Amino acid sequence: MATPSDLSSQLAVNVLDAHSLLAAFGVFGVAVVMFAETGLLIGFFLPGDSLLFTAGLLCTGSSGHGVHLSLGPLLVASAAGALAGAQCGYLLGRKAGGTLLARSRSARLQEGAQRAEELLERYGHAKAIVLARFVPVVRTVLNPMAGALGVPVRTFTLWQVVGGLVWSLGLTLAGYALGSSIPNVDKYLLPVIALIVLLSLVPLAAEVLRSRRAAKEARG
User: Fold this and answer.
1) pLDDT given for residue 112 in this prediction
2) Overall pTM surpassing 0.85 (yes/no)
3) Which of 34, 41, 145, 178 holds its CA 20 to 30 A away from the CA of 85?
4) What is the distance between the alpha carbons of residues 161 and 151, in angstroms, rounded to a whole number?
5) What's the Cα-to-Cα distance from 52 to each of 48, 106, 118, 138, 167, rounded to whole Å?
6) Which of helix, strand or coil describes residue 85?
7) Tell me: the pLDDT tens digits for 183-196?
8) pLDDT of residue 2
9) Above 80 in pLDDT, residue 78?
């Protein structure tokens, strides 16, 4: 039974901070965040990459933050949340069409939707669905976009499972490997998470530069 102090700590959780989420909700929180970030448009701001990496690191017991997770349940929770979320987002998009995105006033979501559509057009369904997993915001909006644009169910399901497993398990195991190999790695946790976030933005930055270059060549 939860004590008043436990309940107050959960209510005070910072949803933008990976460690705060893990300290309050543990493995269950990972599954919920993965589902929300990949299946619900309101979850676009959640820290998916850093959460997976930090959770994997905390499985090693080398962190001094007092939070310890079990690797097996964590891998199951992260994969299940990521896969179920993406499929839910696709089904919502297929049912509601583009109305969900059209009603959103978030400039970040609209930009993500544009990038998602560009990925689908440029790389085709399979490659775009896998690549989107590694781009924040885009991985949130591509799933309903795929449903709204009529991507076949079998195609979407196959490649979202491939991309979802590589992304969720890969980042989690990367955190676990780092925590297992570097003593007192928690001292470097913030710089490492910052690096993970920056790396996750590389594909999006590359797409922006490529689009601008193509536009200049078309004008020239």
Assistant:
1) 74
2) no
3) 178
4) 15
5) 6, 25, 27, 17, 9
6) helix
7) 665 565 656 666 66
8) 46
9) yes
Per the structure block, which two tokens stand in for 77?
């929770």
Q: What is the mean pLDDT of residues 48-74?
A: 80
Retrieve residue 85's tokens. Answer: 């979320």
70 vs 73: CA distance, rounded Å: 6
Structure tokens at 163: 């991309």
pLDDT at 66: 62
- Tell me how far apart the alpha carbons of residues 144 and 146 are, in angstroms, rounded to a whole number: 5
Residue 214, helix vs strand vs coil? helix
* CA separation for the pair 75, 81 (Å, rounded): 10
- All residues at 6 or more sequence positions from 194 whose CB lies less than 8 Å from its CB, including other chains: none
Say if residues 179 and 57 touch (Cβ distance below 8 Å): yes
3-state helix, strand, coil in the chain (%, to 5): 80, 0, 20
Residue where the block lists tokens 């992304």: 167
Maximal C-alpha separation, the chain: 68
Assigned token pair, 43: 């979850």
Token pair 């990367």: residue = 174
Cβ(16)–Cβ(51) below 8 Å: no
